[in-house]
Amino acid sequence: MSLDNIHIAIVEDENEIRQTLTLIIDGSQGFSCKYAFPDGESALASLPNLPVDVVLMDIDLPGISGIEVTKQLKKQCPDLDIIMLTVQSDDDSIFESLCVGASGYLLKDTNPADLLVHIKEVFDGGSPMSSQVARRIINSFRIIENPLSERETEVLKMLSKGMNYKEVAEEVFLSPHTVKTHIKNIYSKLHVNNRAEAIYKAIKQKLI
Predict the structure, then answer these.
(1) CATH annotation of 6-140
(2) Which residue among 44, 45, 129, 194 sits deepest, i.e. has the most Cβ atoms within 10 Å of its Cβ?
């Protein structure tokens, strides 16, 4: 590979976006973009054998997803840098991408000048992320204060083990009516409507 250029490949199913990115990147000094793929299958078949430094990867591809493509590519090419370039900004997409080996995570509204800066950044060993993505990651590490009392937490833990109201009441030496009151308070504090939602939310937020 030329030492003068960073060699980029694009995996993007929308023709207009793929072509526009190719033209912008390939027409910029210090960058070369000669490979673009409309789906994950064609990317997987070719990329391991191509002289590429950085891949811009969409997530929502037809067939195999960009996250799965990233996972498979990183197994074959551990040194390949992959930046997710997507409209998906939900927590699951972000963390799944990073867990399978993505080096950066950018949203598609990133302007072209910034995109080139971020490609250079990842090539130099950085991990570029859109500001919205970085904020979501930071928020995920914040400790969530448990809104439940010690007794409510205890009751919810028992419910998560499949115990019914009567069994919980006997276990904690309370009346079934009192247990139901605790459960009603749990639902209110967690903003849920049933046991399954309460357990799911409590586990997700690491309250139990």
Answers:
(1) 3.40.50.2300
(2) 129
Looking from the CA of 60 toward its CB, the CA atoms found within 13 Å total 8
The model's pLDDT over 102-131, given as tens digits with 9 standing for 90+, comes to: 999 999 999 999 999 999 999 999 999 988
CATH for the 150-204 domain, from 1.20.210.10, 3.50.50.60, 1.10.10.10, 1.10.1670.10: 1.10.10.10
Domain 6-140 identical in fold to domain 150-204: no
Q: How far apart, in whole angstroms, are the C-alpha atoms of residue 70 and residue 58?
A: 10
Q: How far apart are CA 101 and CA 70, in angstroms?
A: 7
Structure confidence by residue, pLDDT tens digits, 136-166: 887 776 656 789 999 999 999 999 999 998 9
Question: Strand pairing partners for 53?
Answer: none
Residue closest to 171 by CA, chosen among 184, 154, 194, 152:
154
- In sequence order, the β-bridge partners of residue 7 are 32
> How far is the CA of 179 from the CAs of 152, 189, 193, 199, in angstroms?
9, 15, 16, 16
In contact, 97 and 133? CB cutoff 8 Å: no
Domain boundaries, the chain: 6-140, 150-204
